[in-house]
Amino acid sequence: MNIVQEERQAQMRTTEKILPLENGDRLTRQEFERRYQAMPHLKKAELIEGVVYMGSPVRITHGNPHAHIMGWLFNYSLATPGVQVADNTTVRLDFDNEPQPDALLRIAREGQSTISEDGYLEGAPELIVEIATSSASYDLRDKLQVYRRNRCCEYLVWQVADRRFDWFQWQAGEYLTLSPDPEGIIRSQVFPGLWLSVEALLNGDLVEVRRVLEIGLATTEHATFLRQLSPG
Predict the structure, then answer these.
(1) Closest C-alpha among 90, 19, 110 to residue 48
(2) Which residue in 65, 87, 88, 225 could disulfide with 192, CB within 3.0 to 4.6 Å?
(3) Which residue segment(s) compose the domain that 82 sits in?
(4) 222: which DSSP letter?
(5) How many domains, in total, are found in the chain?
(6) pTM of the predicted structure, to 2 decimals
């Protein structure tokens, strides 16, 4: 192949039309990323089991609970150096799955996930939260199985319309549901001190949510976790 032919082929590749993402497309992860990057106006798209899912405009019924979850996780990360919180961050899980969870919490140093050279999260973070409209959401079907298979340690799903909050913990290849204690509190098994008053969250009582979290942050378990996270 001469230089002219090489230049023509390079020009053809440069001018090749990149098709837009469409709901239901079946793509490889590489092709999904290529099309997603060519659509800078698109705020959320996910690849789940090789199928493209694109989010609709976000209503307040999603945005408000999302903000409450982010506040809860942010306050935990603020008191727990070495733990990183992220919002709507793309995660490369495997060749067929690249979700963009509503919120996540990860151990930044020597945790399950790493940050790639191009700035993506690779591998399952320790905790993922999804805000679902109802029990019919794919967050409780395909995504749940994907997160379980990739060993996301804790998976939280807030079903807003159903006023339900599920907290799944990975054990021996299965997700088991953690139940609130007699005081209505669920305690993370991966992030010591991450306590949640489920009823207060569902009722929008953020003062109580913060009070319960602060109790968890004051425990000896959280203090021990902080020592484990500190380098050296």
Answers:
(1) 90
(2) 225
(3) 60-229
(4) H
(5) 2
(6) 0.88
